[in-house]
Amino acid sequence: MIYVIAKLPCHEEGASKFIDFAKSDDGFSVTRAYKGFKHIELLVEEDNKTIYLYEQWDSKEEHQAYLNWRMETGFGDFMGEILEGEFSLSYLSNVGA
């Protein structure tokens, strides 16, 4: 299993739009049905603008396939509208310590 942390530095209206998207029929319900998906949480920093996604997937490749699919279906345009900084993505492994 792979852990994914995505950081989305949004403007305030953008953060609100992303939260609305996540709750919509095209949001996390679609993510949850994607091959390899295990878990997702949406976390918001105290500034009410910076969003973190904490995800678990079967593999990095399955997450990247999902992300590529999202970008091909117009998600990149939406992200361009809501971000005020650079989107970042980290892949982590649990070493069992």
Tell me what the structure shows.
The chain is an alpha+beta fold. It has one domain: Alpha-Beta Plaits (2-Layer Sandwich). 39% of the residues lie in helices and 30% in strands. The chain has 4 helices and 4 strands. The protein has helices spanning 12-23, 28-32, 60-72, 75-82, and strands at 2-9, 37-44, 50-57, 88-92. The protein has a 4-stranded antiparallel beta sheet. Strand 2 and strand 3 form a beta hairpin. It is globular. The chain starts with a strand and ends in a 5-residue tail after the last strand. The relative contact order is 0.30.
**Succession of helices and strands:** EHHEEHHE
Number of strands: 4
Sheet with the most strands, sense and barrel status = 4 strands, antiparallel
The level-1 CATH class: Alpha Beta
Report the radius of gyration as a whole number of Å: 13 Å
Structural class given helices, strands, pairing? alpha+beta
Q: Helical stretch count?
A: 4
Q: Enumerate the strands of the largest sheet in spatial order, edge to edge or round the barrel.
A: 2-3-1-4
The poorly predicted ranges are none
CATH architecture: 2-Layer Sandwich
Fraction of residues in helices? 25-40%
* Cα-to-Cα separation, first versus last residue: 16 Å
The outline comes out as: globular
**What is the overall pLDDT average?**
96
Give the number of domains. Answer: 1
Strand content: 25-35%
